[in-house]
Amino acid sequence: MTPAPTLWSACWRYRGALAAGSVFLLATNALALAIPWQLQVAIDGFRSDAAGAGALAIRSALLIATLAITASLTRIASRILVFNSGRNVEYDLRKGVFDHLLALPPTYFAGHPVGDLMSRLTNDLMAVRVLVGFGALNVVNTTFVYLLTIGRMVSLDAKLTLLALLPFPAIVIVGRLTGRSMFKRSREVADQLGKLSSRIQEDLAGVQVVKGYALEGAREATFIEQNDAYAQVSMRLVIARGLMGPLLGLLAAIGTLVVLWGGGAAVVRGELTLGQLTAFQLYLLQLAWPTLALGFILSVFQRGKASWARLSEVLAEPPAPDTARDPARPLAGALSLRGLTVHRGGRAVLEDITLEIPAGATVAIVGRTGSGKSTLVDALCRMIEVPKGTLLVDGIDVGELPLRTLRRAIGYAPQEAFLFSESIRDNVRFGLRDLADEAAAGARVETAVRDAGLERDLRILPDGLDTIVGERGISLSGGQRQRVALARALAADPRILILDDSMSAVDAETEKEILDRLRTVLEGRTSIVVSHRIAAVRQADQILVLEGGRLAEQGTHDELVEKGGIYADLYQRELLAASLEAA
Questions:
Q1: For the segment 278-310, what is each residue's pLDDT rounded down to a tens digit?
Q2: What topology is assigned to 410-493 in CATH?
Q3: Quick one: how many helices (H) and strands (E) in the chain?
Q4: How far apart (Å, rounded) are the C-alpha atoms in residues 521 and 14?
């Protein structure tokens, strides 16, 4: 796996463009410094040679215009190079962060809202890009301006330069103090924006639930509360920025007053020419913009720094370990669980599960709500990490198999089917991205759709297989979504097929039809069927009954019914419910 990117490594890749941009920026400032010098020559020349003033004025004007045009061109070149580098850094970081997110274990996403992650990938990355582009350009520009301009001012009058720069230590102190405040405020703004984004994402994703319970007013009140909190932290940042600008401007203006007072006296005494004083004043004005912009630059720097800190938190998360080598031959699908124990939240949700599932066997898992069925499925798919030696596939520890190899061998149809906002065909083909043969892929899709019992639904959908399902499959019913997810799992032709209550949203008759079709599909592959309906599991080779995270019972349907335990009780309840429904 590619190492997680850092801000330094991302910038280093574009060091050539950044260095060239800095050279052009240096040239820009050098040309800008030549304009006051030429003006000084012209003014002093007018006073000493009144007869040739006209020709001197034309030459000076042409030279100043040439310097200004050339400085503009070099400034444009520097901005293109530096700003484009900032965009490229943003692109690389976004790709790197997204790749890192894909490598993180599912448990990470369970504790981090999607809206907050989206805010980091958009708002925070944009702030980092501004830091690298606009922020870096202005830091370099300010450095060049101060070094070159102050050097030129010292050459004109060292004493006057010292007087003009007296306020600058105070400017540094004010900038440092307000910078700390802005970093804190910027981090608060970024965190609160993440919370607000999460709230909006949840409400929009669950808008049907909100409307179904007439909770629009309550959710709006919660949104207003979150939005007000964001406004408050944003206003604190605005106040910090608002105080910095005027304070720095006031301190810079004091330097201008000192120059007018001290420089004017020097001209009267004959220590400075009028041209030199004019040039000195222009040089000081060239220092004014970087000084006034110092507050904004510091704000950009602190905002980018706070945003990078949030991105670094994501990049610091360790990815799911995946350093194993591919097995010598394709996986057959034999599963061995040896004392499998899984803890969550300080308690054991699975405890000492031991069993053998031969390759090609059909095993059913039943149990009451909270018995640990979904956790066992997560462990089989390696969606959670399990202790070494407790879960083996074909005799190989699951941690020693590459994640890609393991998950390519597994077809998973969950109860909560997630569909992408694409066509039904594209959703079913999702697991066939590497199959280049279009005809073979199309045949697999059609077979999977038929086996999943979708043909009848496709006839009434507007575009059949090419019907766009909308975000999360919103245009389909719950049962249709589940069957599309089932078809997606079947199309991948996996060695291990896991159906996690994947037909709970269809009626019993439709479920029976689908199961009848699946009899031949399940043959020859290891199948794990999780269901709350006994009718869906009674034909399984083995039935596992979980209770409180433990394997309470194990056997065939007839054996478990005869035993009269938990399974028999569930079976009798289902028969009673069916009788009441028929009556």
A1: 877 788 777 766 766 666 677 777 778 888 888
A2: Rossmann fold (3.40.50)
A3: 21, 10
A4: 53
